[in-house]
UniProtKB/TrEMBL annotation, chain A:
Species, as recorded: Pelotomaculum propionicicum
Transmembrane annotation, as ranges: none
Needed cofactors: AMP
GO molecular function (one): oxidoreductase activity
Family: Belongs to the ETF beta-subunit/FixA family.
UniProt domain Electron transfer flavoprotein alpha/beta-subunit N-terminal: residue ranges: 23-215
Protein name (database record): Electron transfer flavoprotein small subunit
Pfam families for the chain: ETF
InterPro entries per UniProt: ET-Flavoprotein_bsu_CS (IPR000049), ETF_a/b_N (IPR014730), ETF_b (IPR012255), ETF_beta_N (IPR033948), Rossmann-like_a/b/a_fold (IPR014729)
Domain of life: Bacteria
The entry's keywords: Oxidoreductase
TrEMBL record, chain B:
EC main group: oxidoreductase
GO BP field: fatty acid beta-oxidation using acyl-CoA dehydrogenase
Region ranges (Disordered): 159-186
Name used for this protein in its record: Caffeyl-CoA reductase-Etf complex subunit CarE
Amino acid sequence: MPRIIACFKWVMDEADIKADPKSRQLVLDRVGYKISDYDRNAIEEAVQLQEKHGGSVVGITVATPGAKPCLKDALSRGPEKACFVNDPAFENLDPSQTAAILAAAIDGKIEYDLIICGEGSSDLYAQQVGPALAEKLGIPCATYVNKLTYVEGENKVIAQRKLDDGLETVSVKLPALITVLPDLNTPRIPSLKQVLGAAKKPVDNVSLANLQQTFEPCLKTTGILAATMERRRLKFTADPEDIRKVVDSLIKEGVIA
Amino acid sequence: MAGVWILAESREPTLELLSAGIDIAAQLGVKVAAFALSSQLAEEYIKCGCDEVMLLPPLAAGQPLESYVPVIVEEALLNGPDIILIGASQRGREIAARAAAALNTGLCSGCTGLRLDQEKKQLVMERMLFGGAAVQTVVCETRPQMATIPPRTFEQAQPAEGHQGEVRQLPAAPPSPVTVVERTPKTSEAVDITEAKTVVCVGRGVGKQEDIALARELAGVLGGEVGCSRPVAEDLRWLPEELYLGISGKKVKPDLYIGVGVAGQIQHVSGIRDSKVIVGINRDENAPIFEAADYGIVGDLYDIVPKLVKEIKAALKI
Amino acid sequence: MEEEKFAAIIVGAGPAGSTAAYMLAKAGLEVLLVEKGAAPGGKNMFGGRMYSHALNQVIPNFWEEAPLERAVARELITFLDGGRSLTLNCQDLSWTEPPYHSFTLLRAEFDAWLAGKAEEAGAMLACGIRVDDLLIKDGKVAGIIAGEDEMAADVVIAADGVNSLIAQKAGLRKKAPAPHQVGTGAKQVIKLSPEAVSRRFGLSGNNGAAQLFVGDCTKGMQGGGFLYTNKDSISLGLIVSAAELQKNKHRISDLLEEFKASPHIAPLIEGGEVVEYSAHLVPEAGLGMMPQLYSDGILVTGDAAGFVLNLGYVVRGMDFAIASGAAAARAVLSARAANDFSRQKLGLYQQFLKDSFVLRDLEAYRGAPHFLEIQRMFKAYPQFATGLVSKIFTVDGGEPEHLLGKALGQIKKSGIGWGQLAGDGWKGARLL
């Protein structure tokens, strides 16, 4: 019966991010937040494994205290408990810090057989925290997994990795860490009762002081600018005349010949 | 050896990173070293300007490539490189992340551009944020400075007349707790979408798999190839995954991109933003593709695409 | 958990729903507030201005904690006709002192705050949940059905907006409102610096302005434009009768773009970046579209009940929503004290609404929607007014003409009949 930790991140919804075209500064004051897309697959996989094999699922996140709404969201997706590693200092963490903080919060404090992370977060998409966390904890890892099987009685998982050059199926002794791809499963949409149930599930609050360590960043961000995309944005209708105009323009530009 | 280190899974990306590495090393006045998986490649890398090659011994049966991580980490600890550039294949990303964690240093993932700040002897690296909506510039405060770099970011290094270098044999990888039980190599697709001059891209707006024929016909008259958005490949599985475009898929730079029923999520647009001309066809006039397009045609693709084919045929007299 | 039952389930975490949930939770009831959007305020980007009086009854001095943009000091009404405009501009600084007359606000933030107050008071908030149906037992509403889940409650409060599915399911309303009963609205939030906003509208400090537009901006169709100044942005939008929009085959988004480009608006938003766009239905027909407000185990509040008043110069919705939510909460508390959730007992709700300003004001202005349906209001009168005043100010060496003559000339030009003018004037004075 695997004891599983599912890691998730509370991120800005990139669809809400706007930019000032002149200064190229991002306008972030009206963005909504969500559980990072691939982390929903991580949570879903953990919960499906538990439904099949028993055991337990703890959801863990590192965030500022303001991210509290993420707990209800995550818990409504199935984990029975959440570990909320939060501190006002945990803002704009670089991946090495997030991995180190997770390692400090997990190591010796939460018993586990399997840790599941998303392939990358939808904000930074650095794809580092999973493998870096495994390294910090000194456990093996398998990344980019699109099929995962827990082998009962053998304390291992069989994972199919989807890589640039093909598929690779690996057998990994537990405890281990897996990062998952979105095609692994379809995350459930929490039902009313699951949402209500989430409010009653226990949450462990862990602060920076509890961890008794400091976490310095390795990367320093020196600038963030909106990606520019100079396009003409001409609009046409489905009228044959309009279509002809488009085709004429494309020929003039030399992209149709 | 200190200096700039290069690590990639295969020959082409290694040569690409080598050309960038040679450039940086020259500015820093240091040497360039690369990892190689065979002595044949080692020789080629040296010819192409590499000062030292660290030859990785073959892996035992069932060992995945990532088993080299402890070897790489050990070498880095012994020699203290200034910079490690790693090819951003999926394995490369895992290796880089684990090595960076073991070395307690910073890693710029998916670095799309880099230059050297001569004064601070520091790499200034760019990468995409928020699915491609923004560009983040980072510097690494710790050493080595590490970055994973996507394929085709740089030109390949070319053989330099009579360039000399050393080959050094590294110790074997320790036994790995991860065992490969099966490998299914990707059947190589006849089509390389990244080479196409014209790309017609199928999005969720296309209602049925059969209707991809519409896009194929359009691509046909234009002499182009058909690609798709991520959900069309991953959720619907209508087209092979080699054909999906986006920040996590293929990046294309065709002369002409036509999105057919593509909504234009930022993750997709990031993969097509270097196209010369972008045409978007969508029923929803507020679809984000129109923000990213030169020519936006608002309407039903089942109406527009045949008209477009007809007009193109008429114009090209085919 | 299967046996769980709430004292009240409120569907919709807008101002009406959150107010009801807040009051009931504060009174110690087990309350469930269900929201369809991923977060309260997420779907509903409308509003923009709230008259303070109603919320001040529920949460005294709410302005000390609520996310508000600017206290409105200046009210403007502008008539538009081509290159001409005529603006009535009224500033009253007493409006910007406690208890503040009205505030501009951003619904996404405000609704989230108010729902948060309800949560703080002990209400259970469940977002991302679509309520599909009502649970009916012995012909009485006994809870809700969402997906596979049933949830029981003594009473359900429908606060689910203009197209209220709940009111329909309860049989309190036949179907969704007809096109002539709703307006289609589109709104953009345009970002500017706080200084630019204050400068362009002649506002000191963090005072705000609210401006309504009548005339060209709707191409003569029933409706109007609105503009609210936020701290560092402007909410600019149009509301046009859905029926007329359909009839004339106009698209609201095109109209809004034209409005933005017009010489009356362009300088106000120059250099601003659109950071938000939303489209929405707004109830327009006042009491005319009011459903039955209560039945066994159910109450209908806010937009769902059609509690919106459009007088042309004043557009109210949020204060009615909040007051109706509060009235519903009081009715539920009385019903609970008597352990009687029958329609007879819940009828108290209508009584509370009558005693409060909600039904009183809606009743007082009952004829306003019909009056505003008169086409002349949106084309001929703006033409007449702007033309006349422009004429008064025009010095061009032409024949002198007295004011009366100018007025008569303009009336003739605008094609308004004398009888119509007299009739509309009388109706307007009486109804508004």
